[in-house]
Design a protein that fits this description.
2 domains, alpha+beta, single chain, 4-stranded antiparallel β-sheet, Alpha-Beta Plaits
């Protein structure tokens, strides 16, 4: 896993990268390859050879810096019809992702980057919060649904 931070004013030189705020480049299976989760910052969750080469070339060109962040982030997925309902206990997912493909958010007091998948969500959590996030999800799953 890599994070890439572009130097001031250099992001526009990143050819083929998602440059719009909250932009995501996905692979052929729909998995996120590059997430533009903050100003001049991208997360490359499972960089393949071409993504690694793009990050290395951008760093060599003086556009920014690539950093291995394998232990900083952990990936979780929520799938199925109830995934939006579960996350709505923490934030309005539809509103957050209405005009963007990903967003840096706080879910159950845990910093994360959120993007939609086919029938759920990819959640890139700061690793030190993973146990707290999982506990919050398990607590919500154990609560009975209201009749309303």
């Amino acid at each position: 896993m890599l994070e890439f931070a572009a130097f001031a004013g250099a992001a526009a030189r990143l050819q083929g990268w998602p440059l719009a705020p909250g932009g995501v480049r996905r692979d052929a299976q729909g998995r996120p390859e590059m997430l533009h989760f903050a100003p001049a910052r991208w997360l490359l969750p499972e960089p393949d050879a071409s993504s690694c080469a793009a990050a290395a070339a951008a760093a060599a060109a003086g556009t920014g810096a690539a950093v291995d962040v394998e232990s900083k982030w952990t990936v979780m997925t929520l799938e199925g019809a109830d995934s939006r309902r579960l996350l709505s206990a923490s934030l309005d997912v539809a509103a957050v992702l209405e005009s963007r493909d990903c967003a840096a958010v706080v879910l159950f007091d845990c910093p994360a980057v959120l993007t939609a998948s086919g029938d759920g969500y990819w959640i890139f959590l700061k690793a030190s919060y993973a146990a707290d996030f999982e506990a919050a999800v398990l607590r919500l799953c154990a609560q009975p649904r209201s009749a309303g």
